[in-house]
Amino acid sequence: MTLWQSVLRFQRDKISPWIAFRNTLGMALPLAAGIALNNLPAALIASIGALNVSYSDSHDPYVQRARRMLAACVLVGLAVFAGAVCGNHHLLAVPVAGLWAFAAGMLVALSTTAADLGIMSLVTLVVFAAKPLPPESAALSGLLALGGGLLQTVLALAFWPIRRYVPERRALANFYAELARAAVAPVAVREAPPASAQSTQAQTALAHLSGDHSIEGERYRVLLSQAERTRLVLFALGRLRVRIAREAAGCSESALLDRYLEIAARALQSIGEALLAAEPMAGVAAQLDAMAALAEELRARCPEASEPATAMLQDARSQMDALTGQLRSAFDMASSATAAGLVAFARREESTPWRLRLGGTLATLRANLSW
């Protein structure tokens, strides 16, 4: 039954029409050019290069995507050249293919992406080894495959200037959406902490921003930091909710904590949706005020609680205060990341007196010149 479920399962999230369209376009353009110029063999080689490089395309951040696809272009061009040249000499083809296969296998020690690139280039090498060519023709074929791969790369990166941080926002939005689900989900003590997979994906997506000191880069790193802190607090509150329900069954504070987590889940969902749609958030400020009010209500009830539950409720109150502050900070950052927020931020910066702006610039300069 498990086997048939795996075979028959339809994963709609794996379908990406836009990536399929641009990859098809990258293969079709060289073919169309070859037909127009009456040189179909050269067009086929360029299309093969585009096809092999298309396997490295994805929704990842543009910097990571560019590095991976450019590496794929170089490997494909080298594999076409090496395969076509080695095909003339059988005694050379076997050791070259063996060494290339060994290197492709060892690339798994670096990453799965590197291993995929190695396997793709190995297949290309074996295919072109079946059609020997003179060195000059082999070099031209390698350049054609490289050109087809570069065309595919250009199509994949075409919207980089106008959609620079869209992949990062998508990863953060998925992280906050999963945190919203985890806030109200039962605690599973035998499983990993909530949103572990989404946390890893967001960290990977934002890893290249470590050297980005622009306002946008700093903003997204703060959003990731607040999401990580929120994940830890939600894990602690979930455990406390279970303990309070078990050791102080029937107390009204447990229901108050449930209401708090439900409101926190809605606030987290709103932040995720705002990051995904890049639109202002409605109602999050009221939700944060409601969370703060529930924390104050729990603070007032703590002296009235029974002795075994007092320490747990005090701990829960501290965690609630921390979560409210973290979500307020995330709300401010996410609001500034929307189109309207960027305009408002620019207006606030322009309204700052020139003396303060000059003083801030000089302070930054002095800090960078200081040993």
Describe the structure in your own words.
The chain has helices spanning 2-8, 17-36, 40-54, 62-86, 90-106, 112-129, 135-156, 166-184, 196-205, 215-247, 252-277, 284-301, 307-337, 339-351, 354-369. It is mainly α and 371 residues long. The chain has two domains: 16-156, no CATH class; 166-337, Methane Monooxygenase Hydroxylase, Chain G, domain 1. It starts with a helix and ends with a helix.
Keywords:
2 domains, elongated, 371 residues, Methane Monooxygenase Hydroxylase, Chain G, domain 1, mainly alpha, 0% strand
What are the low-pLDDT stretches, counting only 5+ consecutive residues below 50? none
Percentage beta strand? under 5%
What's the CATH topology name of the largest domain?
Methane Monooxygenase Hydroxylase, Chain G, domain 1
Structural class: mainly alpha
Q: Return the CATH class of the largest domain.
A: Mainly Alpha
Q: Got a strand count?
A: 0
**Radius of gyration over alpha carbons?**
28 Å
Query: Which second-level CATH architecture of the largest domain applies?
Result: Up-down Bundle
The end-to-end span amounts to 66 Å
Annotation field: number of helices: 15
Overall mean pLDDT score? 82
Largest sheet: none
Shape category:
elongated
How many structural domains in the coordinates?
2
Helix and strand run: HHHHHHHHHHHHHHH
Roughly how much helix do the residues carry, as a percent range?
over 70%
Describe this structure in a few short sentences.
The protein has 371 residues and is mostly helical. Helix 10 packs antiparallel against helix 13.
